[in-house]
Amino acid sequence: MAEKITDSDVLLVVDVQNDFCPGGSLAVPGGDEIVPLVNRLAGRFQHVILTQDWHPPAHSSFASANPGRQPFEVVTFPYGPQVLWPDHCVQETRGAAFHDGLHIPHAELIIRKGYRRAIDSYSAFFENDRTTPTGLAGYLRERGLSRIFLAGLALDFCVRYSAEDGHRCGFDIVVVEEATRGIDLNGSVDAARRAFAEREIAAIAADDVT
Ligand code: VGL
Ligand code: ZN
Fold first, then answer.
1. How far is the CA of 153 from the centre of ligand 2 (A)?
2. Residue of 15, 19, 64 with the most ligand 1 atoms within 8 Å of its CB, for mutation
3. Among candidates 157, 139, 199, 191, which has minimal Cα distance to 14?
């Protein structure tokens, strides 16, 4: 199923940041391997938006900010279950910077998320309370961008939540799975694929994006 890219399509490149790549504090296995493909894909789109995980020091999602807790434990926050992470993507650190190989000079917007200390934010649309908006839906609507292709890190967290929320907001969503990698905690990659299938969120091979 080849898809012709049009002026109302946008590529959303999720969190291709040093901390999510090998050597980073929350490294996604093979996270850096997607960079050349993401660059090539981006070259086919007129419109590209990047997201950047952007936490203040001692963010509530860090295990280090929750006494007695370890990274990857799940705890209950006022808005529901929350995985506790190693410290990562702290504002203005090298870990929060985009991977050095990411080269998308025509990216139109960088949307930062996770900057409220008390709420984590996986999705590019809503924080983890699923009600606080990032502003992306309004931006896309005003720009007439109606179909979102997704790439980046991590498939089972920020890409998954962005896909589901984008779908819920009425956008057409296409996940370019080859241009993603997952963290895979307790079957979370399979759960992401099931969630996409249930919502008829399309998957596409990178070569079919033309
Ligand atoms: C992410 C965990 C914590 C992601 C961000 O980009 O998938 N995962 N913060
Ligand atoms: Zn984060």
1. 11
2. 15
3. 157
